[in-house]
Amino acid sequence: MTFSNPAANAAASARSYVQALLEVLGDRQPLDVLPELMPWLDARLRGAPQQALRRPEAPGKWSVTQVVQHLADSELVLGFRSRMILSENRPALQGYDQLPAIGYQLSAIRGPGKISNPRHAPLIADN
User: Fold this and answer.
1) Are 113 and 65 in contact (CB under 8 A)?
2) Residues 93-106, mean pLDDT to the nearest whole number
3) Are 69 and 116 in contact, with CB atoms under 8 Å apart?
4) What is the DSSP letter of 27?
5) Which residues of 22-34 are buried (b: 16+ CB within 10 A; e: fewer)?
6) pLDDT band at 67, cuts 50/70/90?
7) Please, which residues have CB within 8 angstroms of residue 85's CB and are 6 or more apart in sequence?
8) Which of 5, 52, 61, 86 is deepest in the core (most CB within 10 A)?
9) Cα dihedral across residues 93, 95, 100, 105: positive or negative
């Protein structure tokens, strides 16, 4: 199963993208599933070769390392947006293009294959 919401047409494909994610959840609530993410990733990624984690799924697609970085970034955005929602009346929640951000973070700051959130680092640590 592939989930993709390209920035070029994010507004047009957002509804179908969100619907596909909700179908995966079934009757479960997103906040009930969220705590299961780290153990799920850990079970599948621990011991995986670094080369495999850094290889994109296909041309134009992200690698596992980039997906994990995106999850870490999304966690930060979720925390910030949650605080805004709880503390402001009708806050403006600005979108962002994750493609330049992830490329910049992975190559310019930490070098290929590194991630920013220390909580996620064990998932793709060198073996």
Assistant:
1) yes
2) 62
3) yes
4) T
5) eeeeeeeeeeeee
6) confident
7) 91, 93
8) 5
9) positive
pTM above 0.90?
Answer: no
* Residue 116 and residue 105 in contact, taking contact as beta carbons nearer than 8 Å: yes
CA angle 84/90/94 to nearest 5° reads: 60
* Phi, psi dihedrals of residue 103, rounded to the nearest 5°: -65, -45
Helix 64-87 to helix 37-45 angle, to the nearest 10 degrees? Answer: 170
> Using 50, 70 and 90 to split pLDDT, how confident is the model at 58?
confident
CATH superfamily assigned to domain 34-124: dinb family like domain (1.20.120.450)
